[in-house]
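In the current project phase, our protein records have gained a structure token line. A sample record follows, to show the layout:
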Amino acid sequence: MSGILLRLAGPLASFGTNAAFHDRDTCAHPTRSALIGMFAACAGRDRSHALAPFTDLPGQPRYHDLTFTIRIDRPGTPYTDFHTVGGGYPRDEQLPTSRGPRRPEAASTLVSRRHYLADAVFTVAVTGPTPLLESIAHHLAHPRYAPYLGRRNCVPTEPLVLATGVSDPVGELLGHVPLSLARPPRQDATTVPVIFVWEQPPPCPDAVEYELADVPEDFTQGWRRYQLRSVWRTRQMMPAALYAGPSPWESLAAYMHPEPA
């Protein structure tokens, strides 16, 4: 078992948990289904085959063998996009009803609201079987289909992969990976509070447990199914010296490519 570190950041992100019908919500952090879906897309796996074992890798691992620990560097700003679909088309191109006929012209336009996180930054530790992590890192660097942050219009910024082959990825999150905070710490501060999301009960007495229906059972169009699971949220005090500034690229580059001792 080893780990990789990812940085999920971009102008927009959206990680739906009840994203059906006309109101498409977003979770406050990347969901398990969004992360696995991104890996499967980069690997070029179709929806019906996305969750199948990797028969070409030792031990035939699956994406379900992965564990995610999420550090919320910057929670982002909630943003709602107002959409209309189906209006202004000829009668034979207007939206169908559930029974098949076309909707009447007066009701041909459907309104939907899609919720996003603007300018959010998440640092994610991914642990699991080493052959599977090596495959994931390769496909993230050479994707068959482009990665996205929950929805296809949510393009991630670089760098996406911070490190591979990490022996203690959670320890790196807690004490080494530069922080992309929304605002700088106070000048006299030695620590800053940062929210973490855990898939296993963390060794913290004040962890808050809640449930998410984001464990994918099937990604097939029309047959999507998800299981319920528990996650834990904690508030960790991190070294203020990890703050990377308003333009974190130099700090991230120095972390990714450290100078020889």
About this structure: The longest strand covers residues 225-239. The chain has a mean pLDDT of 91. The longest helix spans residues 130-141. The chain is about 15% helix and 35% strand.
